[in-house]
Amino acid sequence: MAAARPADPVLTLETRPAEALAPLVVPSPAPSHGPVSDEAAPLGAPKPDAAEPNAAELEARTAPRSTTSEDEADFSWLDAPLPPEDEVEAATQDPVDAQAPLPEPVAPATDEPEDFGEPVEDFAAEPLPEDEADFSFLEPDAPLPPEDEEAEPDFSFLEPEAPVEGADTLDDTVPHEGWRRREAPALPEALLPVGPRIPWFERLRQGLARSSSQLTGSITALFTKRRLDEATLQDFEDILIQADLGVETAMRITERLSEGRFGKEVSGAEVRQVLAAEVEATLAPVALPLELDLDKKPHVILVVGVNGTGKTTTIGKLSAKLVRGGLKVTLCAGDTFRAAAVEQLRIWGERTGSEVVAKAIGADAAGLAFEAYDRAVENGSDVLIIDTAGRLQNKTELMAELEKIVRVLNKRDPDAPHTVLQTLDATTGQNALSQVEIFRNVAGVNGLVMTKLDGTARGGILVAIAAKHKLPVYFIGVGEGIDDLEPFKAKDFAQAIAGTA
To answer: Lowest-confidence range among 89-93, 257-261, 445-449?
Structure first.
């Protein structure tokens, strides 16, 4: 026989004598109980060492659930407290596997089935009355009424448009490299009939709004109920210098304001009138139109400038104006360092119908300019516009390359390039003064184009450049549109920046 398994410590803890569990007090068994019998306890009988509950309690615990006269269950027996004997039994009961088997379930009393009234009708077996809702449209085969039929979705807008008769079409064949040339953009607005547009002066005034508001706001704040004395004149001169008008221009305007007004009260409006008149007087000598000598074709325009001043965009807008004026233009993609510049110039060429001469990235810019000149002669172009790579004025090797382009063109025509335009970014402020000086010495700049006047409050730098270098200002740009590059007019610029119109 196998040795007895040692008692589980958990079970041993569970079966400690009742007297070891403090603070429970075990009462003496009732004297009414008889001696313990050795016979097996009947099914459902209490354990030998526990007090036997009376018959009423046992019956209450095992009696089946019954209904009262009001058809409500009686659960009052749950509220009856356990006798002291049962509490002791609960504290000292054996483990689950050592307990006596549970009493057999007592079959519940068989009561007559309750009558719930009339039986539930089977509505599915009866046809719907005429006034009931009709849900037959939910059936899969039932067609929708004519008025509720949904129109078929129209995806025709996704289909490619039919080619216009006479228009150029693109080759849809995919090369072995796996890409296709992008569709050529449409012609710019400048080359197409357009409706009424915002007048140029209004666009100029809007473009110079930042420069004008800062300058005129400071003037108004200074000349509010204040006499014109030395301190006021000094503050006014400082305002003009901070607006990038230049020291020379600021001193001249301050001196003109003090004539006949010193010691008197001066309004802001009067000061702005003096400012506009002096700015116009400074700019008038340089506000000249671009003259093209077409006796010798092609007229060569070389466009130079530092990085990001808008050279390629300016070339595109200028070529559109020339083509609209009836001239034939050839474009040279001389910025061989930047692939985007070549692609951008190709797009402008397609828009304006101008031939573009270009080579692979990294090609010699001077050699390309030489070939472009010969090509412009062959196709009878009136104007050849040459783009160049952006370069900082302190990069000697790049400036030397620019000199080489000029020398190569001189070999084809001693007077070429006939026009050397330098694009200036108005946002650079005073730095533009040194840029003009260096490019003028290297490439022979003889004309200026001021761009991005709408993106800065430093538009006054154009006045300082005109006063110092006295170079013609042919065009100014105040936006990205093709018509936002216009010939420079001194009076319009002066009135717009002084806020007098």
So the answer is: 89-93
**Residue 39 pLDDT:** 47
Using the Cα atoms of residue 28, residue 34, residue 40 and residue 46 in order, give the sign of their dihedral: negative
Residue 72 lies in a domain: no
pLDDT of res. 54: 61
Tell me the CB-side half-sphere exposure of residue 300, using CA atoms within 13 A: 26
Burial 441-456 (b: 16+ CB within 10 A, else e): ebbebebbbbbbbbeb
- Look at residues 286, 313, 338 and tell me which one is the last residue of a structural domain: 286
Distance CA 447, CA 466 (A): 11
**Range of the structural domain that residue 262 is part of:** 200-286
User: Does residue 306 fall inside a structural domain?
Assistant: yes
| Residue 50: how many other CB atoms lie within 10 Å | 15
Contacts of 97 (CB under 8 A, 6+ apart): none
Q: Using CA atoms, how far apart are residues 333 and 86, in angstroms rounded to an integer?
A: 107
Q: Are residues 350 and 273 in the same domain?
A: no
Query: In this model, does residue 215 exceed pLDDT 60?
Result: yes
pLDDT value of position 416? 94
Model confidence over 268-327: pLDDT tens digits? 999 999 999 999 999 999 999 999 988 889 999 999 999 889 999 999 999 999 999 999
Read off the amino acid at residue 57: E
Q: With helix as H, strand as E and coil as C, how does 15-54 read?
A: CCCHHHCCCCCCCCCCCCCCCCCCCCCCCCCCCCCCCCCC
> Which of 235, 256, 286 represents a domain boundary (last residue)?
286
Backbone angles phi, psi at 451, to 5 degrees: -115, 165
